[in-house]
Design goal:
binds adenosine-5'-triphosphate; 341 residues
Amino acid sequence: MIKKGDFKKYKIATIGSHSALQILKGAKDEGFQTICVCEKGKTKPYTSYKVADEIIEIDSFQHFFKIEKELMARNAIVIPHGSFVSYLGWERVQQLKCLHYGTKAILEWESNRTKERQWLTSAGLNQPDIFQHPEDIDRAVIVKFHGAKGGLGYFIANNPNEFYERMKDYPHEKDYTIQEYIVGVPVYTHYFYSRLTEELEIMSFDKRYESNADSIGRIAAKDQLDVGIKTSYTITGNIPLVVRESLLPDLFGMGERVVKASQAVCKGGLFGPFCLEMIIDKDLKFYVFEISARIVAGTNLYINGSPYTDLRYGEPMSTGRRVARDIKQAIEAGQMEKVLG
Ligand code: ATP
């Protein structure tokens, strides 16, 4: 039996990938013992950076369920991140029996594009238009393949002919979305919502470094045409960003509405870290094209805190550390149910 308030009886665990360094470092900063579940032969970052008090090795993350009992025996609270959700799949995450930070059911709403759109629409967020049929393409569109990792293979088309021409490269691909292409700058807003404080925070922002979308400006338009460059969006890294301060009120409002709307779509609603991925156009209009309902890798830029967390905390506060603090405060307040889902 664990005493209320004794957070040291719990450990923080995650799988060794994505944002695990940040999550485990943040947990240690808050005084937790940490466990990193690694694939065999991939432990080096977690030992070298000294973020893991214990390492459990498995052949493949797909076999996570084999070590679940070990985690439960250690009172480990598992923090999901992008790789965790992608390796296990949102359906298998629902079957976890170990302590899990975050509402599991919300993962279905972020993974299913129809549900995601319904959720964002109910939150009153502006989104790029969707074209159901290629014949309807009447402006620039971006074609996205579902399950594409990090924007790989996405392409731009301006009319039905261009669409069919480009689709010749993907003869077997049936699962895609045709979305209005927004001319503007991508902004990834990293939020945090605590059910303990019932407050929404903006932790930080990033923009992505995508190949070859971010390299095209380095050569003249004529050369781009001559060598037949086709834009693609393979993510290679993240770049830090601060936004124009006058945009902040709207960005806070959008995050708050997404949290409120989540409470209507699934029991427990969205809490913890999440990210709204948007394009901001020349009229400063926001177009949200995706939500990630867990920590995003762009927060790795701010292991030592961001300009925004510095304003609020005055000490290094990464998103990973904010998660650990939420858990610690919940345990100390005897309200652990507010961080589990
Ligand atoms: P996933 O998170 O599902 O792995 P992803 O987040 O990498 O995919 P998207 O975020 O959907 O893929 O898009 C990748 C990139 O494409 C974005 O960073 C942005 O630069 C660009 N992009 C996406 N949608 C639009 C749009 N509607 N208009 C203009 N650019 C877009």
